[in-house]
Amino acid sequence: MTDNKIINVKRLPKDPGPAAWNRILTDATPYAQLDQTLQADWVVVGGGFSGIAAARRLSQLVGNEKIVLLEAGRLADGPAGRNSGFMIDLPHELNSESYAGSQERDRQQIYLNRAAIDFAGDMAEDFAMDTRIYDRCGKMTGAGSDKGIAHIDSYCAHLQALGEPFELKSARDMKDWTGTDFYQKGLYTPGAVMIQPAAFIRAAAEGLADSISIFENSPVTSIEPGDRHTLITPNGKVQARNIILAVNGHVQSFGFYPRRLLHVFTYASMTRALTADEVRRLGGVSDWGMLPADPMGTTVRRSSDLMGSGDRLVVRNHATLNQSIEASPANMRRAAKLQDRAFANRFPMLAGIDMEYRWGGRLCLSWNSMPAFGEVEDRIWSACCQNGLGTVKGTLSGMMAAEQAVLGQSELLSEFLDHQQPSLLPPEPFLSLGANATMLWKEWQAGIEL
Ligand SMILES: Cc1cc2nc3c(=O)[nH]c(=O)nc-3n(C[C@H](O)[C@H](O)[C@H](O)COP(=O)(O)OP(=O)(O)OC[C@H]3O[C@@H](n4cnc5c(N)ncnc54)[C@H](O)[C@@H]3O)c2cc1C
């Protein structure tokens, strides 16, 4: 980027299918669309986990200054309202010897992840969120096959080496908990949090709305950098000294990190609300989440009624690399097929139940799993590329961007900044062909865990 060159935003977000976690809640009153010229000290672009965390941290650090948040669509309609809601403190990649490269690295990641989970927890407390919106219930990983069990065993060894607590669960425990006899073994770790992702984002925004100005349906289409940057939206403008870009993979649409970001979509289906008889047939407890032992396997959630949402089951699987940052109808059809099969394998007692919602959502990864973080231009910070675990890493990068911009340094920042930049990707078409073929192969290898 050269000085004072206008940044034209090349692409705006397109989300395939509805954000089901948002749809099942009662309608939210929309925030206004920006239709005037505003003066501000800070603009946060993007209202997902990263944008909400950045706005919250700014309101704590410089609460007397004017903070504006601009969201392209509706809050919780993007990936923030499409995810499975696991806020995970521990290494996610079960079969890797060490998540981040070394035990020291692992401990640093766990420390940072827990700081982000606590930061979100403080919002949950301050804004009086229901325990089903932010629940410190830990997380379960389930295996339905010998291969999955082998993954769990290697993960246990890893947790033991790190001195992290866990409990193993038998097939009987798993059936009592979930109602299905699909899972043969489980691994419970206590430090994770389960959220209703859309309800969390909406409640956090509502809590922040007294101290910041939120605008929906106000995509930033260009930025004129200057002493006061000017952000242009279709019907308005904001002039501000500082900007935090919290747009995850779309930071590339602003011209930053070219050829360094992987745009992956993953997909999910949610049943219609279950009847009382179906809930009885299913059995198990009323709210639970299950991560797959095989990283390419199926995630499942069961959620009970919250704000009239009804009791529902959600299955998530399948991943595609779409460097255009758009998923295709063919991607959605294939995901639906895989999800129907995963559902039938796990819930034969609910055979024939319709999926009311099917959707996909964007993730942003880098080849070396590093965030796209830092001051990318004078007083413009990027808090992007969450490498799949955005509920936690998005929260972390939003907090860190605010701290870097306001404080310059902090104890947490010095740990967080101990990372490299995202590395350069292989050229096309090799990248997309190779990555999609590898993911298909790994899905096939996951067998019944998918
Ligand atoms: C099906 C699915 C399941 C998942 N499960 C999990 C999980 O269990 N745990 C987990 O940690 N993560 C999960 N994820 C990933 C997680 O949802 C993302 O990593 C996370 O939402 C990223 O947070 P973010 O705030 O960085 O970006 P986003 O949530 O993508 O927010 C960025 C926001 O920026 C807005 N934006 C973009 N361009 C502009 C613009 N020009 N102007 C204004 N606004 C703009 C977008 O509309 C969007 O709302 C899942 C994702 C999917 C799709």
Domain unit count: 1
CATH superfamily: FAD/NAD(P)-binding domain
Q: Assess the beta-strand content as a share of residues.
A: 15-25%
**E-strand count:** 20
The small-molecule ligands in this entry are: flavin-adenine dinucleotide
Named at the architecture level, the CATH assignment is 3-Layer(bba) Sandwich
- Give the CATH class: Alpha Beta
Apparent shape: globular
Structure annotation, total helices? 11
Taking the alpha carbons of the first and last residues, their distance comes to 43 Å
Task: Give the tags.
450 residues, FAD/NAD(P)-binding domain, nine-stranded mixed sheet, 11 helices, 32% helix, globular, binds flavin-adenine dinucleotide
Can you give a write-up of this model?
By secondary structure, the chain is an alpha+beta fold. The chain has one domain (7-449): FAD/NAD(P)-binding domain (3-Layer(bba) Sandwich), CATH 3.50.50.60. 32% of the residues lie in helices and 24% in strands. It is built from 11 helices and 20 strands. It has helices at residues 20-23, 49-61, 103-126, 146-162, 171-178, 197-208, 276-282, 329-346, 390-406, 411-416, 430-446; strands at 7-8, 37-45, 67-70, 86-87, 134-135, 139-143, 167-169, 185-189, 193-195, 213-215, 222-224, 229-233, 236-245, 262-271, 288-292, 299-303, 312-321, 355-365, 372-377, 380-384. The strands form 3 sheets. Strands 1, 2, 3, 10, 11, 12, 13, 19 and 20 form a 9-stranded mixed beta sheet that branches. It has an 8-stranded mixed beta sheet with strand order 7-8-6-15-16-17-14-18. Strand 15 (288-292) and strand 16 form a beta hairpin. Helix 2 runs parallel beside helix 6 (197-208), helix 2 runs parallel beside helix 9 (390-406) and helix 3 packs across helix 9. The protein is globular. 47% of the residues are buried. Mean pLDDT is 95; it is low at 94-99. The chain binds flavin-adenine dinucleotide (FAD). Flavin-adenine dinucleotide binds at residues 9, 12-13, 45-51, 70-73, 78-80, 82-86, 219-220, 246-248, 250, 266, 268, 316, 361-363, 386, 388-392, 394. Flavin-adenine dinucleotide (FAD) is lined by residues 9, 12-13, 45-51, 70-73, 78-80, 82-86, 219-220, 246-248, 250, 266, 268, 316, 361-363, 386, 388-392, 394.
